[in-house]
Amino acid sequence: MPKTIHRPEYSLLRELVREERVRAGVTQAELSVQLNRSQSFVSDVERGVRRLDVIELRDMCQVLGRDFLEVVAEFEARTRRDLGRLTPSKRAGKTAKVR
């Protein structure tokens, strides 16, 4: 199984994190100050260059005024909606081998 940062679910999480930030009217720079991190940290998370762990996600939710469990529930709903129709191998990020 590929690293989580390369799985389709992670793309959905990145999109959700960015949407939550934009919805809150917060720039990457403003969020980074509140998190005591660099602006590049937020950018790297949103671009998929850097993996976001659950504690960092929780911190972001708090700064953005969002309930962590509601954001996780939204992530789960999107995952089921958007990835539920994929085959198990595509959900895991695997591709068919060409022979």
TrEMBL record:
One of its GO terms (molecular function) is DNA binding. SUPFAM superfamilies: lambda repressor-like DNA-binding domains. CDD domains: HTH_XRE (cd00093). Residues 17-71 form the HTH cro/C1-type domain. InterPro entries: Cro/C1-type_HTH, Lambda_DNA-bd_dom_sf. This is Helix-turn-helix domain-containing protein.
